[in-house]
Amino acid sequence: LVIVPTYNERENMAKLVQRLRSLPGDVHVLVVDDNSPDGTGAIADALAASDPGVHVLHRAGKLGLGTAYRAGFQYGLTHGFQYLCTMDADFSHSPESIPALLEKAASGYDLVIGSRYVPGGEVIGSPATRKFISYAANWLAHTTLGVTAHDCTAGFRCYRRTVLETIDLDTIFSSGYSFLIEMAFHCQRAGFRIGEVPITFVNRTEGASKINRGEIFKAFYTLLRLRT
Predict the structure, then answer these.
(1) In which element (H, E) is residue 29 found?
(2) What whole-number distance in Å separates Cα of residue 52 and Cα of residue 123?
(3) What is the 8-class DSSP label of residue 150?
């Protein structure tokens, strides 16, 4: 199951779902839409109506990335999926990289991260400020929390079912992008095996970025909170 949180992603929805559903292995898609004013949820509903492999969760409003992931994880666990992936809806993560994440997970890794910062990984089109913030957050996660993953702020991931059954998701305090750091931290602390595969991250070309100053402050606060 590929979980795709959305807020105002109508430009990308149909193309993304089509590419995901074209992957080998009957990859299912779950769109978790936060009541997008641009009608993303209605587009997702139309796609689901014509394809049993597409599923939609509608939420009342913009409730945060972390809570969208938790809702998606609960759906996936309830419906018996063994591998639960997460990705952005803006094509910064290539759908065609999903099989590489699944292959590495099937080889024995519990959490697989699509990484910009391992050999072969690349970042294209991101502003210098965003690159610096990403590098800084990862460096601090390594040095203050001891997280060994090179890209613990990446949202392109594959979790084995057992990880999400073991970690108490209700205790994950973070709600935004800092949720990603916290999940990597708890996975490592629980003794799960974390792997990475190189990806090319392409800055979005359609729609608007959801990262704001508040999310950045929350991420650094999360690092300090977990350190203590």
Answers:
(1) strand 29-33
(2) 34
(3) S
Q: Which amino acid is at 201?
A: F
**Contact call for residues 114 and 93 (beta carbons, < 8 A):** yes
Phi then psi for residue 149, to 5 deg, are -60, 140
| Closest among 85, 196, 193 to 151, alpha carbons compared | 196
State both tokens at 43: 């587009």
What pTM does this model have?
A: 0.89
pLDDT in tens, the chain (228 residues): 999 999 999 999 999 999 999 999 989 999 999 999 999 999 999 999 999 999 999 999 998 888 999 999 999 999 999 999 999 999 999 999 999 999 999 999 999 999 999 999 999 988 888 888 888 888 888 888 888 999 998 999 999 999 999 999 888 877 667 889 889 999 999 999 999 999 999 986 554 555 556 666 666 666 666 666
| Paired tokens of 8 | 């105002």
3-state secondary structure of 197: strand
State the CB neighbour count (10 A cutoff) for residue 60. Answer: 7
